[in-house]
Amino acid sequence: MRLVTLLLLLSPLIVCAFSARAVVVVAADIPPYVIRAQQGAPSGMAIEVLEEAARRLGEPLEIELMPLARALSQASHRPDVLLLPPARNPQREPLFLWIAPLLEEAFVLVSHRRHHPAPLSMKTLPGLTVGVMRGSHSQSLIQPLTGVTQELVTEEVSNASKLARGRIQAWAVAWNTARYNQQRAGLPLPDLVRGETLQQSTLYLAASPRFSRSEALRWRRVIQEMREDGSLARILHQYDYQAP
What range(s) does the Solute-binding protein family 3/N-terminal domain occupy (predicted)? Predict the structure, then answer.
């Protein structure tokens, strides 16, 4: 009898403990969508959108920051985590559950005004060295091109510095990422020359295909609600987001 009474007394605590368990978010360290802080919690467009969605759902978040290639691998094998902010493409389509679109992005070719003042196109790339982030959507877009040397990095800020020094002649990158990392490297924005758009793509909140469909629907609905009430657009505006 005492055991039954004890279990009844403890059951609300057990329920609270399970309900308060944080939702784990695997976030690829790609500013300005996900920005690693020197101290404290990460920030960024995608992080703030998800934090507001979590607040509305009453869900605590636990954010795990890592390089893009590792984030993609981790999220595809862990059935109970969310993933920020992958671009949706044919190669990734079967690997993830695509929960909700977050923003549109233009993946472009970028050159430096001093070294290549004319905008680059895919036709002018053969013979050039192109900086690209390992595992990125940009890498998949230039992969089929012949005569192009890829120089891989794990952080886009490295490509901003390499472009300024002439170590790479082109940078395949999302336009908002290029602008943010150019400033992060302490370099002038006007030095960037925007070339041909490789593709316009959508960045998503995603998860493993084994992620709970009912939970995915909750997140999809609240992010759509944020889109409709304008709060999603307000968050993007704070980061000087430029739509394609």
Answer: 23-239
- For residues 171 and 112, give the distance between their C-alpha atoms in angstroms, rounded to a whole number: 9
Q: What is the pLDDT of residue 14?
A: 42
User: What pLDDT digit, counting tens, does each position of 206-227 carry?
Assistant: 999 999 999 999 999 999 999 9
The pLDDT of residue 172 is: 98
DSSP classification of residue 122: G
| Collapsed DSSP state (helix, strand, coil) of residue 83 | strand
Structural domain boundaries enclosing 64: 23-104+202-238
Cβ neighbours for 135, distance < 8 A, ≥ 6 positions apart? 67, 68, 69, 72
Instruction: Note the pTM of the prediction, 2 decimals.
Output: 0.88
CATH number at residue 159: 3.40.190.10
User: Which residues, in sequence order, are CB contacts of 138 under 8 Å at separation 6+?
Assistant: 107, 132, 172, 173, 174, 198
Would you say residue 8 has pLDDT above 70?
A: no
Peptide bond into 117 cis (omega under 30): no
